[in-house]
Amino acid sequence: MSLHIYNSLTRRKEPFQPLEPGKVKMYVCGPTVYDYIHIGNARPVIVFDVVRRYLENQGYEVRFVQNFTDVDDKLIKRSNERGESVPVLAERYIEAFYEDVEALKVKKATVHPRVTENIDEIIAFISVLVDRDIAYEKDGDVYFRTSKFEEYGKLSHQNLDELQYGIRIEVDERKESPQDFVLWKAAKPGEIYWSSPWGDGRPGWHIECSAMARKYLGDTIDIHGGGQDLQFPHHECEIAQSESLTGKPFARYWMHNGYIQFNHVKMSKSLGNGVNVRELRKKYSPEALRYFMLSAHYRNPLNFSEEAMTQAVQSSSRLEIGLQNLKYALDKALDRHDEDEAQLIAKVDDAVQLFHQKMQDDYNTPDAITAMFLVLNEANQYLSRQEGLSRKVLGHMAAALEMMNSVLGIIPVQEEQLLDEQVEQLIQERTQARKDRNWARADEIRDQLQEQGIILEDTPQGIRWRRK
Hints:
Rossmann fold, Four Helix Bundle (Hemerythrin (Met), subunit A), 4-stranded parallel β-sheet, elongated, zinc, cytoplasm
């Protein structure tokens, strides 16, 4: 089976075929950096990190672009409230974004372009549309004529008459049609601005992504991703302005993730019910947060709750302990042959095949996680034998879990390190204390190790330790 992706444009699953064999050009809309990201913002970050990771797992070279909107109405309003400049405000939250997504084990984009660094490209883009009479200027603002793009509405599957009821902003009387959208905004007194052929001002929201996607990825990209809420008007407008400029398809595959809900209500900054990732990081591990995000199909809504997070913590921990036990046993295993070795390896291979089958079916991460637990269950049964374990079988199981985790990122990856001699010495002393039936001293040592973040575990292969 080959990779199939649900294309929001055609509303069906399609086999994935990039423009250039072996290479993928992927653009995902990034945050407007006027505040810390909340868990709703984090969902597309994690979802498209997994999309990218699996493409790379399949041998593709992925050029991944995710922008920062570092100037717009929200930033200007927030900067005025705080008495600081827009660039200073934006820089602080860009750095916070990097910290948060790195903590979530998300790979950094190939390019993270900023609107303020691409003003020349944006102005050039708009100028062509104005010259072709696809856009028009009115009192220093520039608008896109949606009537000039016959396919406007093809992504959200609405016609122009229907779309006028979906416009989120108040109708501007200066516009020729209510559906027309702004490409350039004239600067108001005291606002940040750039000089342009239409006067001082700044870009509209939609034009930024079209200009930056074209600059860094070309006229046509393979995958364009983002949250479901961006499908209209943002992505609809991107298509209209980009395809009007180039005469080519803007993106071959459109992918949109579902909403995060809080108590079954959409989570957003505007509704004031968002939970900041920065706060969640204090309570939950990044792997547990990723597990929660991937526990539902990316196109489905996902409800955030303490119960859901508790389950994610427990499930991620089960996988972590299972993999650690495999590695611990592997260190002590012998090069021997089991009678049922071939059968065990075949079961692991079946689970790996299931993993790929589910990932290739439009990134079905819940079922892909199930494949990981199939391997874990086989591993736990095998480890329960305690003796005569095969290095080959253990290695095959560990490698399978590590491969799947390299895509999903739901098991902590601990760097290999030498055992701390003091910890080893205390463990030996505790073992001797237990032999001597000196339970008080044994408990004292365990408490001492726990205070240092060391957790002792009794396994069939002996006592092992790990850090919290």
